[in-house]
Write a structure and sequence with these properties.
Length: 155
């Protein structure tokens, strides 16, 4: 991604966030005529209760929540030079926002602290991946600069 211009990288992070928001909030958008026409269901505050009680397809839900935010953990520091704690805070705030909106807008959706934990975990994994590929990205960026300098007749 470092071969892309700064603007193109910013568009990548914007598109990644749009993708996450689309798939997590799309059921809400389809229920707009029924918005707020249901009782509020409070957030489940017991982490991993689905796993402990064997309810639903919890491994799939956990895996998808982690997978969904890995790009966020890669793209945020790549485009904004944010450090680990900033990535964790931004991932937490994004996940919390999604979880708080879900039951307010659609009574069929519920919020769960497990989702927040797994979303933040996905961003952390993404940040680790970013740290692993960062040296290679720097090298590619230097090569790109050299190519453009040669192309423009500098050097």
């Amino acid at each position: 991604l470092h071969l892309l211009s700064r603007r193109q990288r910013q568009m990548c992070i914007r598109d990644s966030l749009a993708f996450v928001l689309y798939f997590t909030l799309m059921p809400i958008a389809t229920s707009l005529p029924l918005i707020f026409n249901h009782p509020y269901v409070p957030m489940n505050m017991v982490p991993f209760i689905d796993v402990l009680e064997g309810r639903g397809d919890f491994f799939k839900q956990i895996g998808l929540n982690v997978l969904m935010t890995i790009p966020f953990g890669i793209l945020l520091p790549m485009n904004t030079r944010k450090n680990f704690s900033s990535v964790v805070i931004y991932a937490f705030l994004m996940s919390l926002s999604i979880e708080l909106l879900q039951p307010l807008i659609n009574g069929a959706r519920s919020s769960d602290v497990t989702d927040i934990i797994t979303n933040v975990l996905g961003a952390v994994i993404g940040y680790v991946i970013y740290l692993l590929i960062k040296p290679r990205l720097k090298k590619l960026n230097r090569q790109r600069k050299n190519i453009f300098e040669l192309k423009d007749g500098y050097k």
